[in-house]
Amino acid sequence: MTTKKIAVLAGDGIGPEIVAQALRVVDALELDVTTEEALVGGAAYDAYGHPLPPETLALAKVADAVLFGAVGDWKYDKLERRLRPEQAILGLRKELGLFANLRPAICYPELTAASSLKPELVAGLDILIIRELTGDIYFGQPRGRRAAPDGAFAGADEAFDTMRYTRPEIERIAHVAFRAARGRNKRLTSVDKANVLETFQFWKDVVTEVHAEYPDVTLDHLYVDNAAMQLVRAPKSFDVIVTGNMFGDILSDEAAMLTGSIGMLPSASLDSSGKGLYEPSHGSAPDIAGRDVANPLATILSLAMLLRYSLDHADAANRVEAAVREVLASGHRTADIAGSGERAIGTRTMGDAVVAAL
Ligand code: ATP
Ligand code: MG
């Protein structure tokens, strides 16, 4: 087996601090894996005048997976749009062909108090939301503004977007979802709005066709309004959810609140060959950067997803996730997850605890 390579793009704000802890975990696992770092976001802009320099993109392309921290800082807000740090992640998604966004929402037993819901509704919650990233109303053409055709009001305009999905786009995300469901509890819920939208009647039809290749997985369909309701009424009734770009955007943020802490949520964005970019769901948190208080667990859990989905090291992924459960069970808390009266530890000390648990 050839040595696998992880491109490490730590970025801005708390990015370097939290990624450093994930790299200590990589070392502790003693796998046949190499890492190589490059600048991205504001840090890359400062050094090269561009948030995604060619060197960084080239490294991301040759690597088997990308571990990404976070980008952005207030000090870049005045730059023209194409030079802003956030453009780096959009550029990477596009250049790497990342079309499937996986966001687990896990509620650790010790952290149920931080959830927006009652503990009994979320205790033991472990669901996976899979969002399509390239299609839907976000990218469909035509879109724009124009004068109202009836000219009813002088100077009145209208704005419009086009919701659109192609068969290959739906098929490839459906395959990702069925495979993910197969690796879990073999239950998939496809979320649509087939009662109102032609695009999502098509979505439902194509997902149903792909289901024929996965007879061992149970598939059901839910309208998005009902899914939004069930996520707060009975979130544990789900296992894997697959949906389009816009519904996924909304439902994954809703699911994040069920778990209570943004500092605990990993994410993965995959291409069709199993390569992916892995990053915490939270941003660069410039308000707490450089103070050794950020929670590194979302990044460490993103590393676990990287090991599972891109490097074929499911055992190592399970070990990392078990280590995170263990440090939570033994009472280690960064400030964002510390309850009242609980003592908070720093970023590096949390990293120490995970390494020790491994
Ligand atoms: P973005 O636009 O990049 O998503 P944002 O402004 O929406 O950024 P974050 O950077 O995620 O949001 O920060 C939101 C809040 O959560 C901030 O107060 C930040 O300090 C806090 N936060 C984010 N990540 C962490 C973390 N890993 N540990 C502790 N607190 C965090
Ligand atoms: Mg945000």
Provide structural commentary.
This protein is globular. It has a 10-stranded mixed β-sheet, with helices on both faces. A two-stranded antiparallel ribbon has the order 6-7. It is built from 12 helices and 12 strands. Helix 6 (167-182) packs across helix 7 (198-211) and helix 8 packs parallel to helix 9. The chain is of the alpha/beta class. The chain binds adenosine-5'-triphosphate and magnesium ion. Its cofactor is Mn(2+); Mg(2+). It holds the Pfam family Iso_dh. Mg(2+) binds at residues 225, 249, 253. Catalyzes the oxidation of 3-carboxy-2-hydroxy-4-methylpentanoate (3-isopropylmalate) to 3-carboxy-4-methyl-2-oxopentanoate. The product decarboxylates to 4-methyl-2 oxopentanoate. Pathway: Amino-acid biosynthesis; L-leucine biosynthesis; L-leucine from 3-methyl-2-oxobutanoate: step 3/4.
Structural class, judged by helices and strands?
A: alpha/beta
User: Mind summarizing the main beta sheet?
Assistant: 10 strands, mixed
Biggest sheet strand line-up: 2-1-3-12-11-4-5-10-8-9
Shape: globular
What portion of residues belong to β-strands? Answer: 15-25%
Subunit organisation of the chains: single chain
Rg: 21 Å
